[in-house]
Amino acid sequence: MGLIQEFKDFAMRGNVVDMAVGIVIGAGFSGVVNSFVEKIIMPVIGLLGGTDFSKFDQQIGGNAEKPIMLGVGSFATALIQFLIVAFAIFMVIKMMNTMKARFEKAQEAAPPAPPAEDIVLLREIRDSLKSR
Asked: Counting C-beta atoms within 10 Å of the first and last residue's C-beta, which end of the chain has fewer, N or C?
């Protein structure tokens, strides 16, 4: 098998395509969450605390020309973004698990389907041959 054909087989498998779709959707979701946190959440937190967290840096050394700064505000923003994304993913997985459990419960509760006519006929023939 040629290298090109092997790559086509790999790239067209369902898992790879699903993963690519997930990455694209995740990138879009990340942009929405970043905007939400930076433009809505952090200004409200800053208003409550009297500080704009996006610009909250702490100087730990250096001099006036080259200060060494800790980006505490940037870290707080990134942490809040992570928590929002993690919670959203948790809720999606929780919803999927709930739906899966409902589906499995419905499958267990459903009565088995009656056998097809040809199966019934074959069983009758088998039983007839056994009784001879």
From this structure: C
Would the CA dihedral through 8, 10, 12, 16 be positive or negative? negative
pLDDT digits (tens, 9 = 90+) for 66-88: 888 787 777 877 888 788 888 88
Burial degree of 15 (CB within 10 A; 0-12, 13-18, 19+) = exposed
Its pTM stands at: 0.54
SS3 42: helix
Which sequence spans correspond to the domains of the chain?
Answer: 3-131
Find where tokens 């800790």 sit: 70
- DSSP three-state, residue 132: coil
CA distance 1 to 6: 7
Domain 3-131 CATH superfamily: Large-conductance mechanosensitive channel, MscL; domain 1 (1.10.1200.120)
Residue 49 contacts residue 73 (beta carbons within 8 Å): no
Model pLDDT for residues 12-61, shown as the tens digit of each residue: 776 777 788 888 888 888 888 888 877 887 778 777 766 666 667 777 88
Query: Which residues does 3 contact at the CB level (< 8 Å), separation at least 6?
Result: none
User: Are the C-beta atoms of residues 61 and 21 closer than 8 Å to each other?
Assistant: no
